[in-house]
Amino acid sequence: MPTAARLVAALLWGALAWQISQLIIPLLPEGSQIGMFVEVNVVLGLIIGWTVAGSRAGQGFSGAVGYGITASVALVVVGLFTHASVEMVYRSLEKRYRDAGEAVIGVFDLMTQFGKTMMTTDIVLTLLVGGIAAGLVTEAVNRRWR
């Protein structure tokens, strides 16, 4: 059911996804095709905010810290899986995999590579602090407009 807390959570995690995307872009190899990278991440942030954080609003401010971190971790995992899956499709179209099993394993290898790329202090702190702050704001909105 739509609530003000879900809307605010979606907007906040969308904004967090945009900020994280801006921090990741300079870390990509020279000449990387960015394409719809930022837009996909923002949509994922909107979805994660609505479903993961917004649905948990109402657990109190200590709960808000927990679901804020949970939503940020979910955003990272879903983002890594999405981008690794897209890259796997491109690679399989170039015949880099012998069979479907190797392609599926390739997704998890790519997730690991992409995850290593984004594991910088700036990104991790932004995810943690941004997730906690967004969780607290979501909880405040839930208390104000129940």
Polypeptide structure, described:
78% of the residues lie in helices and 0% in strands. The chain has 146 residues and is mainly α. It has one domain (4-23, 33-144). Helix 1 (4-24) packs antiparallel against helix 5 (121-144) and helix 3 packs across helix 4 (100-118). It starts with a helix and ends with a helix. The mean pLDDT is 95.
- Overall SS class: mainly alpha
Q: Number of helical runs? A: 5
Alpha carbon gyration radius? 17 Å
Instruction: Point out poorly predicted stretches.
Output: none
- Taken in chain order, the helices and strands follow as HHHHH
Head-to-tail CA distance between termini: 12 Å
Largest sheet properties: none
How many β strands by DSSP? 0
Q: Beta-strand percentage?
A: under 5%
Could you tell me the mean pLDDT?
Answer: 95
Topology summary:
Layout: H1 4-24, H2 37-53, H3 61-93, H4 100-118, H5 121-144
Helix pairs in contact: 1-2, 1-5, 2-3, 3-4, 3-5
Key structural traits:
single chain, 146 residues, mainly alpha, elongated, 5 helices
Short description:
This protein is an all-alpha fold and 146 residues long. It is built from 5 helices and no strands.
